[in-house]
Amino acid sequence: MRPVQLIPHVTSVKPRRRKFHTGSTAQKAPLVSPGIIETEETPHRSLRLKPDILTRLDHMVLRHSDRILIKRLLCGKILDTVACILCADLMVYLQESGFSHSAFTFGIESHISQSNINGALVPPAALISIIQKGLQYVEAEVSINEDGTLFDGRPIESLSLIDAVMPDVVQTRQQAYRDKLAQQQAAAAPPASSTNMQGNAKNGENTANGEENGAHALPNNHADMMEVDGDVEIPQNKAMVLRGHESEVFICAWNPVSDLLASGSGDSTARIWNLSENSTSSSTQLVLRHCIREGGQDVPSNKDVTSLDWNSEGTLLATGSYDGFARIWTKDGNLASTLGQHKGPIFALKWNKKGNFILSAGVDKTTIIWDAHTGEAKQQFPFHSAPALDVDWQSNNTFASCSTDMCIHVCKLGQDRPIKTFQGHTNEVNAIKWDPTGNLLASCSDDMTLKIWSMKQDTCVHDLQAHSKEIYTIKWSPTGPGTNNPNANLMLASASFDSTVRLWDVDRGICIHTLTKHQEPVYSVAFSPDGRHLASGSFDKCVHIWNTQTGALVHSYRGTGGIFEVCWNAAGDKVGASASDGSVCVLDLRK
Asked: Which Gene3D superfamilies match (predicted)?
């Protein structure tokens, strides 16, 4: 799953690789007086904002969706006039972008010429404005009682664009809020009742965490929406919030040898934060501005920084951007090289272990190996038939790549064809990772499956089916053969849009723990250096730290924005997290 900002740049792609998102340049739609919205399903029903809405709408944050939304909107089930405006806005975009043939075809098939809407009068960004307002109305209906009060007294939670067009979303969310309120009231009841509730919750958790099969059955997330135990909440004095970015922060990564944290954002900058004990300031930051040449001058690219990676020595940082360029920076923030051969946004970028090559993947369907010393492209691999989403090195000159074309290619520098191709997924392949020995390759997909591959055979070794929605990312544990923790068992973590994280025993091909405390899609997981803990970040604004042996939740932190990325420092005592509201958070896990 991936790409497209819901603004007039519909060819953009979700940071770091693949999901649609509300791009950094989109402006929040101005609020208007309560109006009336009618659909085919509710032809005479008025949806009016409740009394307390206007003062609360600013708390809402728009988030990821995908191309299905546009199809749903344009296929009907919305007011005809609104549909005409949407079509006009899309047609104007196509014309302004030079896609005259596409604009003509779209105009004919949508019958926009038969409407009474004057396209010249449609304001810029009308599409995103209408979608945002529609979300605001639906979120308002979900979260506000008839008397104007919030269900649980907190700001409105955001809906995904897909959820917002589902017919039962209002009833489902409202019931979830009521269940949560009932649980909170039960927790405040006399000790006997409290004990019973805790006992039941514990039993339910053991059932979920003890699962050892590939069944599709999942725990009821809404029933598990109770507040996190106060004993595991990370206190505010152990959480440092770093401010400076002016837009979403999509990616973050610790320097492998020092407490420098790098972050990449929709404000067209990367930043390096010095978090060492002897830093002169608690939030010292270097700003790495991504510029392009225009008229003989360097001007901001105004494109998202979507991927970044430190070399193994911690001396250089590589970044990838939607402007199509990869860049190499020193740890002092100086630009060392600009790598330009991709013909569109870069989705993924990785150093090899030796530190002499950088590997990148882009929307132009190619992957490129770059010479890190000269900045020149060593070889471009044009084997995918659709955008390449992720890459991972097997060795210093061999790598795997995955794509929206559902294929995985294993390529080697100097070879003009893939040395291996894996096929079996039935939808876009979102992420791939080699295990620590380089023998097994894990892949995850929008087809809701996790597959394990070996270079020794063409078919997958394991086809793991347990998630109920798209699997967004995967990570191997730093344990077992080929790691610094050889006596610990190797595990694989998967994060999904079904709001769960699963831990897998790959040798046996079973799920050993299902981690169910998140309430929204999980975008990132990361193992601690010793493999004993797993951090997960979700769009529910929470970072959870889990014990990988027991599946128990040991630490939890709720931030101020949806979490896109989590990462551990080399010492294993700090977790970094990047968020949709422009914040970067550092959690200190030392006692």
From this structure: 1.20.960.30, YVTN repeat-like/Quinoprotein amine dehydrogenase (2.130.10.10)
Tokens of 99: 């896609």
Tell me whether strands 574-579 and 584-588 are parallel, antiparallel or unpaired.
Answer: antiparallel
Q: Which two tokens stand for residue 563?
A: 């979490």
Determine the 3-state secondary structure of 344 from DSSP: coil
What is the C-alpha separation between 159 and 166, in angstroms, rounded? 11
Report angle CA 382, 410, 253 to the nearest 5 degrees.
90
Q: Which candidate, 59, 155, 159, 66, places its Cα nearest to that of 520?
A: 159
Written as tens digits, the pLDDT of the chain (591 aa) is: 543 333 333 333 334 444 433 333 333 333 232 333 333 333 332 233 333 333 333 333 333 343 344 444 444 434 455 566 667 777 777 777 777 788 788 777 777 666 666 666 666 666 667 677 777 776 666 666 656 666 554 444 455 555 555 555 556 656 666 666 666 667 666 544 333 333 333 333 333 333 443 333 333 443 344 355 668 999 989 999 999 999 999 999 999 999 999 999 999 999 999 998 766 555 689 999 999 888 888 888 999 999 999 999 999 999 999 999 999 999 999 999 999 999 999 999 999 999 999 999 999 999 999 999 999 999 999 999 999 999 999 999 999 999 999 999 999 999 999 999 999 999 999 999 999 999 999 999 999 999 999 999 999 999 999 999 999 999 999 999 999 999 999 999 999 999 999 999 999 999 999 999 999 999 999 999 999 999 999 999 999 999 999 999 999 999 999 999 999 999 999 999 999 999 999 999 987
CA–CA separation, 67 and 73 (whole Å): 10
What is the chain's percent helix, strand, coil content, to nearest 5?
20, 30, 50
